[in-house]
């Protein structure tokens, strides 16, 4: 028995987005066709993938058809792609299962993104609601779909008013057919049932679609008007054309189709590799990371084509993880059409493609860095954290990746030109006698900037890299040099002095050991559970104290990160270094020789201050403020002066 037609409500977020789309003042309504064709093309890709892995499904003629009816003012876009089951229609069309949708809608209501020209494009791109754009031009939409492998077809109908119906229907083969009942065109609006309007829109946005898009077109034969199907897209793969043959608009539309990104890409790279393996490629770096997660499932990665036939989306074997934000197409003549994901991993030719793609991407990034610094910095802000992972994971290319990395440093932090520096420009500023590239890791750049550990380096005019990304710790623990120059930890054993100065400073410190001993004893007695040692040091010039790790110890920042990842790491004890040149330290040393009980309180304040300067938080804020208040009180009491 046929299942009754049933009525459903759109999920509330979906209904809301749909309403925004319908009421949008966006004038570029013609993009609805681009979206529906894009969906049809995706559905054909998906069918192809399923057919490849299942021998039961036989041959078929992949196509997209546009049927226009000028009299009844309807257009129908049909594909023989994968189709949808009843549940899939409800899940994909009636629901938006995208994280961040609720938050986005709340922000939009609070006057966030405004209804300007790009708003609808953004809705479509971010939320995968391309299908809803049909409601910009139609007051009713009917979708009939039959899932590959099923005999049942289902009809979805809606006027975009918050509800839809689903009932049983029929379709001669699997696929989807979307019929739009067009609104009366308003003042200056196009008639979307008109042949030439549709031809123009397809040419503009969907020419490169690799499946034929046929439309019922008017023909004159023997002075008589007839109607015949005609393929209206060239299907020419855009990556096979020379750059001079393709307009910027065409590249943009292709990128939009590929990446579902409403913004323009930051840059692109065209690859035409000839050699042991021939392949072509067109790769894009997006201008922004996606709104929800850095890597949502729609982002697509690299699509693999073989002899211009789509094989698979998001082919992870073609590009390393740390370049997962790159989107594009790779098309090879030399791989067999029936290649499977498992074989790909092993295939020598795939490795060759991967290697030369990587080389090309590095070259493009280098070019961008050299010639379009502003764009490069945008790239870096969006994707630098991901890209840098390569230094850790791709040892073979670590030096090339480092060359492309941007860093904050004591120089760039005070520069008006750029907040970033490359390692090469760091090297060009190195002072005579400077032993290496100094770096300091920590929680954030502003804390690092005021670290006492920088003082001796600043005095020498040495630049220090300020590293605050979680991955920086890993990079530095696994990388010893860049371009023959050592990386040296300014927060660890590295020292700014020359060999001779170092010897002299150490001798001076040694001479103070006995003066320091009573203070050291008191400090270790009261802070022994958090400190492994207390010592005098020449690291600071103006601050009284700082905390450093024992050689080889895990930094507190890394410790925090590891704990955040659920690892059980014991807190490692640290070393309190004191600056004997600082009057407070000098006085404390004398005071420690007496029985004055305040020494321990003062030492505790110094420790807490050092902790704060290190980006840590005071373990007992109540005690800290009480101690400070006591100190202020005694300083302000007249008889003490
Ligand atoms: P997007 O395509 O950006 O994900 P849409 O709202 O256009 O967003 O479509 C939502 C989902 O509905 C698609 O991801 C797809 O799974 C399904 N869909 C849409 N159109 C078709 C179609 N012609 N054939 C098969 N599935 C489709």
Strand content: 15-25%
Helix tally? 20
Radius of gyration, Cα only, in angstroms? 33 Å
Strand order of the largest sheet: 1-6-5-4-7-3-2-8-9
- Residue ranges: pLDDT <50 for 5 or more in a row? 292-298
Mean pLDDT figure: 89
Shape call: elongated
Which structural category do the helix and sheet elements fall into?
alpha+beta
The N- and C-terminal alpha carbons lie at a distance of 100 Å
**Percent of residues in helices:** 25-40%
The ligands bound in this entry are: adenosine-5'-diphosphate
Main sheet properties: 9 strands, mixed
Secondary structure tally: strands: 22
Topology record:
Layout: E1 6-9, H1 12-23, H2 31-52, E2 64-69, E3 74-79, H3 86-93, H4 101-109, H5 119-127, E4 138-146, E5 153-158, E6 163-169, E7 175-182, H6 195-206, E8 213-221, E9 224-231, H7 248-259, E10 267-273, E11 279-285, E12 302-306, E13 309-312, E14 327-332, H8 341-346, H9 348-371, H10 373-393, H11 398-403, E15 408-409, H12 423-428, E16 437-441, H13 445-449, H14 455-460, E17 464-467, H15 470-478, E18 481-482, E19 485-489, H16 499-527, E20 531-536, E21 545-548, H17 556-564, E22 574-578, H18 583-591, H19 598-613, H20 621-636
Parallel strand pairs: 2-8, 12-14, 16-17, 16-19, 20-22
Antiparallel strand pairs: 1-6, 2-3, 3-7, 4-5, 4-7, 5-6, 8-9, 10-11, 11-14, 12-13, 15-17, 18-19, 21-22
Helix pairs in contact: 2-6, 9-10, 10-15, 16-18, 16-19, 19-20
The chain binds adenosine-5'-diphosphate.
């Amino acid at each position: 028995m046929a299942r009754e037609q049933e009525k459903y409500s759109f999920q509330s977020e979906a209904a809301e987005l749909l309403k925004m789309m319908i009421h949008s003042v966006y004038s570029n309504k013609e993009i609805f066709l681009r979206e529906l064709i894009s969906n049809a093309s995706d559905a054909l890709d998906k069918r192809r993938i399923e057919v490849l892995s299942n021998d039961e499904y036989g041959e078929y003629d992949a196509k997209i058809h546009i049927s226009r009816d000028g009299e009844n003012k309807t257009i129908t876009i049909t594909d023989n792609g994968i189709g949808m089951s009843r549940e899939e229609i409800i899940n994909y069309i009636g629901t938006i299962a995208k994280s961040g949708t609720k938050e986005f809608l709340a922000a939009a209501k609070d006057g966030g993104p405004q209804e300007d020209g790009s708003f609808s494009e953004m809705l479509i791109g971010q939320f995968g609601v391309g299908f809803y754009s049909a409601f910009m031009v139609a007051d009713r939409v009917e979708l009939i779909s039959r899932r590959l492998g099923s005999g049942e077809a289902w009809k979805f109908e809606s006027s975009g008013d918050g509800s839809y119906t689903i009932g049983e229907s029929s379709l001669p083969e699997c696929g989807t057919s979307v019929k739009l009942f067009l609104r009366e065109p308003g003042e200056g609006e196009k008639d979307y049932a008109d042949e030439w309007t549709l031809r123009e829109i397809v040419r503009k946005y969907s020419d490169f679609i690799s499946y034929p898009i046929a439309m019922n077109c008017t023909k004159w034969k023997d002075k008589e008007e007839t109607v015949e199907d005609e393929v209206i897209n060239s299907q020419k793969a855009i990556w096979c054309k020379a750059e001079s043959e393709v307009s910027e608009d065409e590249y943009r539309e292709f990128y939009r189709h590929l990446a579902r990104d409403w913004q323009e890409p930051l840059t692109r790279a065209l690859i035409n590799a000839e050699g042991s393996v021939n392949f072509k490629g067109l790769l894009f770096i997006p201008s922004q990371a996606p709104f929800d997660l850095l890597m949502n499932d729609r982002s697509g990665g690299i699509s693999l084509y073989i002899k211009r036939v789509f094989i698979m989306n998001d082919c992870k074997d073609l590009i390393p993880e740390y370049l997962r934000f790159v989107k594009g197409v790779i098309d090879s003549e030399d791989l067999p059409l029936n290649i499977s994901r498992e074989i790909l991993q092993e295939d020598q030719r795939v490795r060759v493609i991967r290697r030369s793609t990587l080389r090309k991407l590095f070259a493009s990034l280098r070019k961008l860095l050299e010639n379009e610094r502003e764009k490069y910095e945008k790239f870096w802000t969006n994707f630098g954290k991901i890209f840098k992972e390569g230094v850790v994971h791709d040892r073979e290319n670590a030096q090339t990746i480092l060359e492309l990395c941007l860093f904050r440093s004591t120089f760039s932090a005070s520069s008006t030109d750029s907040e970033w520096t490359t390692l090469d420009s760091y090297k060009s500023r190195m002072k005579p006698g400077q032993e290496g590239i100094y770096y300091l890791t920590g929680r954030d750049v502003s804390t690092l900037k005021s670290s006492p550990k920088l003082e001796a380096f600043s005095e020498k005019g040495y630049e220090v890299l300020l590293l605050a990304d979680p991955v920086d710790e890993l990079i530095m623990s696994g990388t010893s040099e860049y371009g023959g120059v050592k990386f040296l930890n300014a927060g660890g054993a590295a020292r700014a002095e020359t060999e001779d100065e170092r010897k002299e400073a150490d001798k001076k410190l040694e001479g103070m050991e006995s003066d320091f001993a009573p203070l050291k004893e008191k400090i270790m007695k009261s802070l022994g559970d958090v400190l492994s040692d207390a010592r005098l040091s020449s690291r600071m010039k103006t601050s009284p104290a700082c905390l450093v790790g024992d050689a080889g110890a895990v930094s507190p920042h890394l410790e925090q990160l590891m704990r955040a990842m659920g690892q059980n790491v014991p807190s490692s004890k640290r070393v309190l270094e004191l600056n004997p040149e600082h009057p407070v330290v000098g006085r404390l040393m004398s005071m420690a020789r007496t029985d004055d009980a305040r020494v321990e309180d003062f030492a505790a304040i110094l420790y807490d201050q050092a902790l704060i300067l290190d980006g840590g938080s005071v373990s007992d804020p109540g005690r800290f403020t009480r101690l400070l208040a006591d100190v202020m009180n005694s300083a302000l009491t007249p008889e003490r002066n």
